[in-house]
Amino acid sequence: MDYLLMVIGLLLLIGGAESLVKGAARLAESVGVPSLVIGLTVVAFGTSAPELAVSIRAALTGQREMAMANVLGSNIFNVLFILGLSAMIIPLTISRQLIRQDVPIMIIISALVLSMTVDGQLSRGNSAVLVVLLIGYTVFLFVQGKRTAHVKTTASNSEAVTEPIKKNAPAWHSLLWLAIGLSCLIFGANVLVDSAVNIARVFEISEAVIGLTILAVGTSLPEVVTSIVASLRGQRDIAVGNVVGSNTFNLLAVLGISGLVSEQGLVGSLQLVQQDFPIMLAVALLCAAVIFHRRVPEPYRRRDLF
């Protein structure tokens, strides 16, 4: 029964994330937020909503190690599997912004979180720092996107920047999608965490292993679908940006918020601190090396990627 509940929980998380992204994207477009910013924030953050829901649920129910392991496993899976699979479908095209800004930010935040958890604890104070950084990073992206959109609109009538996703969609439609998505995420997270904990107890598996494997892969399914679809449609920069943005969101929002809601913060085992956190940082560095190697030569770069 727990296996069936786990599948149901995963399906609810995937459907809820899709609904949440759709509603948020329509609301963002209705107030004039550029599509580039939506891709870097709403889409990437929305596909990480299952990780957020699961980790918050785990933190509130006392599975503090599972909440942390879920983030680590998801970040490692995102780069090694999703980015690798996307590159196998179609050669990746990497924009200058990803190389110079977003990937370095992801690496710096990964190193920061590693330094915060060297003692096996992520305190509520450190969690608050991560949330503040999240707010600052999001505001920075929106301000930067607004400026970029203004420059592009002045230079040329770029359809990708100026045309909204749904100009005439009523606001209540977007709010309804948001409400449905949030409800599915909350209920799906409860079902998934409870079933995963029960399975772990039956097989005497630690919370860290469950978080690093079953929960990490399951909650990363929205990123898998988004990046694969983007690759198949030739939107190669979006496929990479989704992974980078999701990893950054996982570290800042998922760890930060779940650490805040837990009365004692989050905790990590010796394995997480000495093995899995360094692996996550190494994978982030590997991502930077691969992305830099796969950058498009200057004469052949598409103007719209910048």
From TrEMBL:
It comes from the Bacteria. Keywords: Membrane, Transmembrane, Transmembrane helix. Residues 3-142, 173-293 form the Sodium/calcium exchanger membrane region domain. InterPro entries: K/Na/Ca-exchanger (IPR004481), NaCa_Exmemb (IPR004837), NCX_ion-bd_dom_sf (IPR044880). It is a multi-pass membrane protein. It holds the Pfam family Na_Ca_ex. Its main location: membrane. The chain crosses the membrane at residues 35-60, 72-94, 125-143, 175-193, 205-226, 238-257, 277-293. It is found in: Membrane. PANTHER family: INNER MEMBRANE PROTEIN YRBG, SODIUM/POTASSIUM/CALCIUM EXCHANGER. This is Calcium/sodium antiporter. It comes from Photobacterium atrarenae.
